[in-house]
Amino acid sequence: RKGIVAIVGRANVGKSTIFNRIVGERVSIVEDIPGVTRDRIYANASWLTREFRLIDTGGIELANASFTEQIKMQAQIAIEEADVIIFVVSGRESVTREDEFVARMLQKSNKPIILAVNKIDDQAFKDSIYDFYSLGIGDPIAVSGSHGIGIGDILDEIVQLL
Ligand code: GDP
Ligand code: MG
């Protein structure tokens, strides 16, 4: 069976941007309603000779749920379904309570976790990744979803862990 890789993290850290980078240019799916596009949640992806299925848990939403319930459900899906988890945080901000909440949930699982510090568009900001060691998830990897920096490093990690 194809390995499953799930992307998790609080809102606006860049999960969908990283998802689209990994998947390629098949950026969005078109809904039945004209003019409405939605982020896609599942896609097949590959790196080197390895194929896997990618899930953007941020696109899976509960109606009428609080942010906490939402992220809890998304992290739970990642823990249950994935073989490898990509935990995305924003290098433009310091560690938030929500990042810590997600980290605590993920730590209870025995799944391998890749910690991606996104929005490091410029090497000048690279030192901000060190703050994220405090999450206790391991070595942070600097990435820029919008500039396509560090995506190859994430993919190398994925294929090693699958
Ligand atoms: P999600 O809510 O985690 O799926 O985040 P999105 O992928 O929708 O991105 C949220 C916002 O951050 C959007 O305005 C993106 O354009 C922006 N963003 C995503 N990745 C980067 C990045 O690497 N650098 C910068 N500067 N902005 C980014
Ligand atoms: Mg998203």
Automatic annotation (TrEMBL):
* Sequence ranges assigned to domain EngA-type G in this UniProt record: 3-162
Could you tell me which species this protein originates from? Longibaculum muris
Its quaternary organisation is: Associates with the 50S ribosomal subunit.
Instruction: Please provide the record's keywords in A-Z order.
Output: GTP-binding, Nucleotide-binding, Repeat, Ribosome biogenesis
Q: What is this protein called?
A: GTPase Der
Single Gene Ontology BP term? ribosome biogenesis
Which start and end residues of the full protein are shown?
A: 2 to 163 of 435
Q: What does this protein do?
A: GTPase that plays an essential role in the late steps of ribosome biogenesis.
Q: Where does GTP 1 bind?
A: 9-16, 56-60, 118-121
Q: Can you tell me which family this protein belongs to?
A: Belongs to the TRAFAC class TrmE-Era-EngA-EngB-Septin-like GTPase superfamily. EngA (Der) GTPase family.
Q: What terms describe the molecular function in GO for this protein?
A: GTP binding; ribosome binding
Q: Where are the coiled-coil regions?
A: none
Gene it is expressed from = der
